[in-house]
Every structure is written in C-alpha cells, then in structure tokens.
Write a structure and sequence with these properties.
Two copies of one chain form a homodimer.
Chain A lengths: L20 E2 L2 H10 L3 E7 L2 E7 L1 E4 L2 E7 L3 H9 L1 E14 L7 E15 L3 H15 L12 H6 E16 L17 E9 L3 E2 L14 H8 L2
Antiparallel strand pairs in A: 1-8, 2-3, 2-6, 4-5, 5-8, 6-7, 6-9, 7-8
C-alpha cells in the first residue's frame, strides 16, 4: 500500500455502514493526533482485553508506553502484532427514531507489527514526546527523565500495516417515512474544555511565585 | 463475591499502582454510568481488537448492541466471555517531571459471561434504554422501534463476574527531590460540554415550528 491509503486490509475492512468508512492516511492520522488517549487490545490469560493508554505518532509509527509489568503491553509484544483503537466523541445525532439516533464520532483502528524500543537514547527521545502529547510544549518545562525512569518504562512501536477510520457526522439520516413526524431532530455538538488550573501547594509552589507556564496558557487561550 | 465488591479476579487484579485501584461496585458502576461509550474487546481473525460502542447498565448486567454483522460482537458471543473497558478523561496532572506527569482519568474494566438477547420484547425494552443512554429522556420523544429495526440489531448482555476501577486524580505526586525545583506543577481539569443544537432542516423540521425538546433543554441547562 502506498503512503496515502492504509487499507482496507484483512483486519480493518469496514463492513457495517461502509459509506462512513475511509482508509485515507490523512483522515486516519488526523483522528489519531486529535485523540488524547487510545485503547490497545491484547490477549491476557486467554481473554481479549483492552487498555486505555497514551500514544504518540510519528509517520506510520504509533508509540505506546507503560510500566514494564503491564500485562496487555506484554501480550502485544509476545503476539508481535497489535490493534490500537482511537475514538473521538463529537456529540449527539438525534433522529426521529431511536434506530437512526446515535452519537457523532470519529474512530480509527490500526493494526501493525510491534517492536520494543530498547535503546535508552531512543526511549528518552520518545518519552519526551509523550510529555508533549499530554500537553504540547510541556516537555521543555519539566525536569528531564532520569536513567532509572527510562529503564522503568516500556516503550513499544506499532508500525501501521493497515488502518481504517469511521466518521459519523452531519445531519441525522431519518427514514423517508419519518420526515413528517412532529418530532424534533438535529445534532448537538460536544467538545472537551479545560477549566482553571489548580496549582500544587507543596515545595517551591507554596510560595505562589511560580507563574502558570506557557504550555498551560496556550492550552487555555486556544479553546 | 458479594454485591459490594466486584474483584479482584484473575482478569482484573490491578498490579501497577495498586493504590489507585478499587474493586468496590459503587465506584465501578459510577464510572460505567458516566462513560458515554466503552470499548469491547474480542479476537477477530486471530487478533485481539477493540471496538468503541455504547452501553447500558442494569445492576451487574452491561448491555451492548450492534449490527448483527459486527465482527467483534460475534467474537465475544462465540467466546462466551468478554472484557469491556470504560474510560473517562478528567484533565491533566502536570508534575515537575515528565515521568510523574500524566492525565487525570477514571477507568473501569469488567469481565463477564456473554448472553445474546433473543426475545423481541426484551430487545425492544433494552433498545429503548439505549436511546436514553444517548440522551436521557429521549426515548419517549422518538418514534418507537419497528419489528424490523429490532431484528436488525444484535443485543448482548455481559453479566459482570469481576471488575476493577482505577482512578488518577488529585494533586501531582512528585519526587521529594523535585519539590523545590522552580517548575510550575498542578492539575488542569477537563470536561465535556455540549454546544447549541443544530436542528435538522428536512421534513417537518423545515417549518421551524418544532421546538427543542425537553431532553435537549435539560442536557444544556444541566451543564
């Protein structure tokens, strides 16, 4: 597959409502980059489980990190392949019928080969990226990771082999026979907002002299 | 296990950061009920995959619904057991180090036996509950489900055998040796907000005479 289209592949062909599906890399990447967390699935003790976790994308590589003891992460390393799911909640789509009503969402599913990042310098670089994933611009504001912090963390790369995205948006799609019913229909957009920061009160923060940093100010100003 | 404690069981013991874990039913149920969607995991074509979907809880039963052709849903029915994960994003916890920085979240993992709901009257009742899951109070406002809509939908029940919850909240937990660094730390709360509804413009809605219903007004007034 070329760089512009990531599917469909054997794991990611969308069968239900294919009109909502896309396999274009740019659409998949937009969802991954906007999602603040993802779910990675693995088989643990004979049962498929999914775990919420953070992610950082570089090109067709999704980085995940966890404690070295994380069971789902160890399972995907043992399996050598993983599925990662990204879901954005955009609000409500309220049709005249319950059947056609649902949430507005964008989701992406990627499947790819799993590789453990062993090199400490590479791990340090990726872990710094994770700080900026939590909040853009934060990495340069915090104390750099220590060697033992880097060793305690497992970092894995999932190289995207195939992916799909599914988008449910826009006006409701009612049955023709429902259109003249005296029932309100429409959409209600939803978004995540951040509220006033709550500063720590311990250590040097107790003086009240340390100002809200640029990363936090930019987050609040940008919404 | 009694009704007040749902774990730990073999699938749900929290090993990493056990201080953040709880197995109390009330804590698990609160997260499930506040979550607007969940992820269900299943093995499809030899690979563990997770699928975002809606859920409705009644006691220790989690109902899920999907198209009859849904591959993950068919997989959990075949397996007879499923893991469902619920994740709430509450904001940012910004420590002085990247290692101690993360998101504020509440998550719950439940594992239980899977049962297909075949009875049409029971399916109709549960599907009505799903309309109220999308938006409380909406079920009584929409056109009731038709027999064919009920037949097109697969409804499964997951009876909770074991569950755990994990909560990351409150002030940052910095290393003692980081406390005097001249670095801002604190938390930034996040929440989902709903914006002005966008009414449909087709059918009877084109007249502009159908008022925003109580369900939507209550959603907007309550935030």
């Amino acid at each position: 597959m070329n760089g512009d289209v990531l599917g469909p592949g054997p794991h990611t062909r969308v069968r239900r409502l294919p009109a909502k599906a896309t396999y274009e890399a740019v659409a998949v990447f937009d969802i991954i980059d906007e999602a603040r967390w993802c779910h990675v699935a693995g088989v643990v003790n004979g049962l498929a489980m999914s775990l919420p976790t953070l992610h950082a994308r570089e090109g067709r590589t999704i980085y995940l990190h966890a404690s070295q003891s994380n069971a789902v992460m160890r399972a995907i390393v043992a399996q050598g392949e993983a599925c990662v799911t990204f879901t954005l909640y955009d609000g409500l789509r309220l049709a005249r019928s319950g059947f056609e009503s649902s949430i507005a969402y964008r989701s992406a599913v990627v499947v790819g080969a799993v590789r453990v990042i062993d090199d400490d310098a590479e791990k340090a670089r990726i872990l710094e990226r994770f700080v900026d994933v939590i909040l853009p611009g934060r990495a340069r504001e915090v104390r750099p990771a220590s060697d033992s912090e880097i060793r305690l963390t497992m970092v894995v790369a999932v190289e995207i082999d195939e992916a799909s995205a599914k988008v449910s948006a826009g006006p409701t799609e009612d049955l023709e026979s429902d259109l003249e019913l005296p029932i309100w229909s429409g959409t209600v957009p939803a978004r995540l907002v951040f509220d006033t920061p709550i500063p720590s009160a311990d250590g040097a923060m107790a003086t009240g002299a340390i100002e809200v940093p640029e990363s936090v100010r930019r987050l609040l100003d940008g919404q």
